[in-house]
Amino acid sequence: MHPLRSLILAAAGNDVIRRLVATAPVSRDVVRRFVAGETTADALAVTRRLVDQGLTVTLDYLGEDTTDKALAEQTVQAYLDLLDGLRREGLAKHAEVSVKLSAVGQALDERLAVENAGRICTRAEQTGTTVTLDMEDHSTTDSTLRVLADLRTTWPWVGAVLQAYLHRTELDSARLATDGSRVRLCKGAYAEPPEVAFADPHQVDLSYVRCANILLRGDGFPMFATHDPRLVEILDTRAEALGRKPGAFEFQMLYGIRPEEQLRLAGRGHTVRVYVPYGVQWYGYLMRRLAERPANTAFFLRALLSRK
Length: 308
Ligand code: FDA
Description:
By secondary structure, the chain is an alpha/beta fold. The chain is 52% helix and 13% strand. The site of dihydroflavine-adenine dinucleotide (FDA) has 23 residues, from β4, β7 and α12.
């Protein structure tokens, strides 16, 4: 892993730095580039704008690693409120939600996470949309896949996420490439040890392509989450070669990252889903985005120092 990336990810876990950054008068513009805002209304407004541009959306209420039952409940309520908003605003056909199990109680008790995620799925079904379970660090992978299997017995449309940097992911891709199975493939965003993950970015890319081929050949619905121009081109070519027409898979990108590319792909007939995070707990998310790209860090630090 790039030393700057490790440093930023380490800083993200440091309480002093966390307080400093979270309370600094950072330009709203910096946070707003990657985060829709703090409220449901902000999230719905950004969703409307993206949908009007021909994009689809998955919304993430920010928050993770909850070890407090009341906080987990707050997160569930935020999702229920959001889903009601999507229905009210007629956006449910174009927007779904992404849920981190650690934000709904996974670390406290896996059963609680199943129950809470199930409540979100019930409301999503009533709303006419779907839920995807984000994937977190490798210590949670087995638990998350267990919860996924449990939820899918009632809601087969629940989406999974697999991370190409993990050694295990080719096998997981084969297991999940079944009829109706929605699978988001990403590179992976956490600092993982070499025993479980490829450290060399080139190895991660090769793994991504191997997993993508498995998903494209399978019976599920692949969702390719990457901004990497080379991978996007390879995926486009492989999909065509394997007879997957636009609409039989989708591209996904993060809000604020390569927005022109999102529109270009949509203009070519692809389904492009933008991952839109919102909520007051934007800090951890922002740090992971900064860790991915030194240029973003410079952008952020400049704004921090200019104290706009
Ligand atoms: P990579 O980081 O190698 O970047 C390739 C190129 O993309 C860069 O050279 C640059 O051109 C562009 N780019 C990438 N990041 C950029 C940035 N921050 N700013 C500007 N340009 C940038 N991870 C996870 O562990 N669990 C999850 O559940 C999810 N969910 C998820 C959903 C969606 C929709 C996306 C797009 C991503 C995730 N991720 C994730 C994050 C993912 O694992 C990964 O960390 C990021 O997508 C960055 O990896 P890339 O594939 O974009 O490649």
